[in-house]
Amino acid sequence: MAYVAMARKWRPQSFADMVGQEHIAKTLQNAIEGGRLHHAFLFTGTRGVGKTTSARILARTLNCTGGDPLHPCGQCESCKDIAGGTPMDVFEIDAASNTGVDNIRDVIERVQYPPVIGKYKVFIIDEVHMLTTGAFNALLKTLEEPPEHVIFIFATTEVNKVPQTILSRVQRFDFKRLTVEQIRSRLRYICEQEGINATDEALDIFAEKADGSMRDGLTYFDQAYAFTGNEMNADAVRSVLGIPPVELFFTLISAIEGHDLKGCFKMVDDACKRGIEFTPLLDGFGKFLRNLLYARLDAFTPDALNISEEMFTKYKSVVPELKNGDILRISKLLIDLQGTLRYSTNPRLLVETTFARMAWLDRLTDLRRALAAINDPKSASDEALKKKVTEVQNMLDAEEEAKALQQQDSNPFAALQNGIASGYNGDVYSRYEISAAWGSVKTRIADSGDFAFSVALNDTVLETGDLKATPFPIALTYLGDNASETWGVKQMEEHPEYMERIKQMLEEMLQTQVDLTLKSRAFNESELKIRKQAQMSPYELDLEKEPGLQKLKELFAAELIYSIKSSRPVAPQQAEGCDTTESDE
Ligand SMILES: [Zn+2]
Questions:
Q1: How far does the centroid of ligand 1 lie from the alpha carbon of residue 173, in Å?
Q2: Measured in angstroms, how far is the CA atom of residue 564 from the centroid of ligand 1?
Q3: Domains, in order of start, for the chain
Q4: What distance in angstroms lies between residue 61's CA and the mean position of ligand 1's atoms?
C-alpha cells in the first residue's frame, strides 16, 4: 500500500477534529443548527492554521444529506462527490494564481446555475487578498445580492489587504495560531492511532518548529517519520530536521556568563560535529535569547512562548549573573553576525570570534589579554585550542586594520556603517551614532508612557568628551538662556533614576560603558543661527539668502509677502535692478 502523508491522512474531516479553532467551529455549528447561515465568510489567520481545511469541512457539512447537520456522513452522494476530488458543487479558486477580472467573471458565470447534487454551490477563494481591484469590484455585485444557493468562503493570510467593501459584506472568523500544547497533543493522538512510539521531547521539537502551524507540524512529522520509522526520539528528529538542541545554547550562554572562551569554541565545534549549519544555529540562538529574556521578564506565559513549563523554569533560573542589558547586547552582536555571515569567507571563524566577544562583553578591551593567556605555552596544553586562539587573534587584527582604513575615509557615514556592520567598533564612535542613539533613547522613553520624563528631555543634546576614553564621557546638555533653571533640569536633578535609565540605554546601544553627566549652557553662535532659521518662515529664509531682496526691502521700507522661484535662469539685464552691489555697467 502506498504511503499516505500524515498531513493528508490526518486532515480533519469534521469540525470536531479541528484543533485550536474551537471558537470558530462552535459559531459555525450554531449557525448551521439555527439555520442562520451567512452567505459569505472570511477566514483569516497565518498559514497552516486550518482555514482552507475548515472551508472544505463547511462545504461538505452544508451539502451533506446524511441527517447529522454537524458531521458530514461520508456516505451520501454529495460527500462521495466531494471526496472524489472533482466536486460538482464546490469550487476552489487560488487567488494567488488567478488574480484577474476574467477569473472572477468565470466564478460569477457559474453562480447563476443551481447546485447539481447538494443544497449549495460553494465557492472557496483562497488568498483572496491577491485579487486585483477590478476583480474585487466584479465580485462585489454578486456579494451584495447572491442567489439563495450560493455560499462564498474567502480565506486570507493578509486581511488588511482585503478592501473594506468586501469586509463589510462577509462574516469574519479569525483563526488562531496553534499553541505547542495543541500541536503536540494532536501529534500524540496521531502517534497513538498509527502505533508510532514517540517521546514527548521529540513531539515538542515538531510542535516548536511548527511555529503555530499545524500543517507545518505535520510536514516535519512526516519528514522525520520517513527516517525514524515507528521509533521516534528527540536526537533522531533533530538530526533529520537540522535543529540544534537547546542544550547547546544553555551550554553557550553559561560559557558566555563565565567568560569561558574555551567553552564557546567547544560549543561551535560540537555544533559542527553534529552537522548543524550556521544559519539554523544562529536562528536557534536568537530564539533562545528571546525566550531567555521573556521568561525573565515574566511578561509571557510558557504557552505564549511556545515552550513547556519545565523549560520556562529552566530559562528563568539560568545565568543569573547576566543582566537583561547584557542579553540585549549579546542579541545585538548576534544580529550583526547574522547580517555579515553570508559575506564571510570563513563563517566558522566569524561565529567563533563573535561568541568570544559575547563572553568578554563587559571587558572587551581585555579580550586580547584573555586570548593571550590561553595561548601561553605555560598555561595551555590543548594544541587545537591554541590554534583556535591564534586564528581569533588574527581575525581581530584584520578587523582592526580594516577599521583603521575606514576611519581614514572622510565620509562620516563610513564610520556609521562600520559601526553597524561590526557591532562593537572598538572605542571610537562617530557623532552620527551618538545622535542616532539619542533619538532612539528619546523615542523609547516617549513610548514607555512616562510623560514627565519624556517632556523633561526637550531642548537637550548629547555632548561627548574624549572619544577614546573609557568609560565614554557623555553630557546630557540643556540648551538655552538660564538653561540650568529650567523645569527639565530640575526634573533630572530630582529623579536620579532618569539619568540611570538613560545611561543604561546608551550603554546598550553604544555597547560600552558610559559616564553620563548633566550639563546646561547657553546656545553658541552657530546653534543660535540654526534656531533662528528654524523659526523663520520660508519667505524670511528667502530674504536671508538673497541679498538683493534684502536691499530692496530696506530701500522701499517694504515687506516681503510672497516669493516664487524663477523657472528660467535670470539673465544679467533682468537682475540688474535687483542687485545693486554687483553691476555690469
Ligand atoms: Zn454526507
A1: 25
A2: 77
A3: 6-174 (3.40.50.300), 180-241 (1.10.8.60), 247-420 (1.20.272.10), 431-525 (3.30.300), 536-575 (no CATH)
A4: 7
